[in-house]
Amino acid sequence: MTSALDLSPRPGAAPRAAMLRSQISMELRLLTRNGEQLLLTLVIPLLLLVLGTHSNKVVDLGPGRPIDIITPGILALAVLSTSFTSLAIATGFERRYGVIKRLGASPLPRWGLMGGKIGAIAVVEIAQLTLLSLVGLALGWDPHGGLTAFGQMALLAVLGTAAFGALGLLIAGTLRAEATLAVANLVYVLLLVGGGLLVPLSRYPGAARHLLELLPSGALGQGLRDTFAGDGPGAFSIIVLIAWAVCCGLGVSRTFKWE
After folding, report:
1. 55 in Cβ contact with 148 (< 8 Å)
2. Which residues contact 166 (CB under 8 A, 6 or more apart)?
3. Chain Cα centroid distance, residue 232
């Protein structure tokens, strides 16, 4: 005969792995339901990649085939759009509507909330980079370095995600949602147009080039171009990305407001 004790409820939090999987799934659903974020993360990079074969008619990319020069920049743009712009805007409005505050009162720990966002970003970026690489190859992109180069791309993508993600959280955690939306979109446009993502740093004048080398966009874009040229990512690009990730991460830990 079953005792009453065996039928009593056992309240408590779900296992950590289950909480993390659930949070990643929720973050992915929110990303895919947002038309603006899908435009930033997929449509714009794909459109620019397809148009990249005629880039020299619009802007001088220097010697070499346009598709080989612009494809690494498009991959860097995909990392920027997901880990910075989408993350900043989503987090800003989650703060405004009290979503983060309510999650903070749930059994989900803070590391679970951040882990869910990081996991969702990782899934989206893997899909982005895979699709864009395949489209680039179909358009005639000829990367050098073999599988080693794609492994180095993964390393640069992780470092770029850390740098841009920390910067996005720094903005979203300190500004109002409307200000975050404006700043994130403005930064996205400025880096897209003149941040060293699509155009090689060698095509900029001296002073501008030195400035862009210190930006995460310039470091990631040039690092990927060097990687797929067969030279591997430069140490300077890696150092710049790590420095941005550490500095912005420290800023987030000190200034982020949960509501």
Report:
1. no
2. 244, 245, 248, 249, 251, 252
3. 21
Question: What pTM did the predictor assign?
Answer: 0.87
Distant-in-sequence, close-in-space partners of 70: CB < 8 Å, separation ≥ 6:
48, 49, 52, 55, 61, 198
Q: What is the DSSP string of 85-116?
A: IIHHHHHHHHHHTTHHHHHHTSS--HHHHHHH
Q: Using an 8 Å Cβ cutoff, are 161 and 125 in contact?
A: yes
**By the 8 A CB rule, do 184 and 84 touch?**
yes
Tokens for 15? 């296992």
Q: Give the whole-angstrom CA distance, residue 257 versus residue 32.
A: 26
Q: What average pLDDT is seen over the chain?
A: 85
- Integer Cα distance of 211 and 204 in angstroms: 10
Instruction: Please report the DSSP string for 206-233 in residue order.
Output: HHHHHHHHTSHHHHHHHHHHHHHTTS--
- What is the Cα–Cα distance from 99 to 93, expressed in whole angstroms? 8
pLDDT in tens, 68-126: 889 999 999 999 999 998 888 888 888 887 777 777 666 667 777 778 888 888 899 99
Across the range 142-166, mean pLDDT stands at 93
**Nearest CA-CA partner of 213 in 186, 244, 189:** 244
- Maximal CA-CA distance, the chain: 85
The answer to whether 43 touches 182, Cβ cutoff 8 Å, is no
Q: Sign of the C-alpha dihedral, residues 40, 64, 126, 168? A: negative
The one-letter code for the residue type at 193 is V
- Characterize 118-145 residue by residue with b for buried, 16 or more Cβ atoms within 10 angstroms of its Cβ, and e for exposed: bbbbbbbbeebbeebbebbeeeebebeb
Q: What are 227's two structure tokens?
A: 């990687």
d(CA 184, CA 89): 7
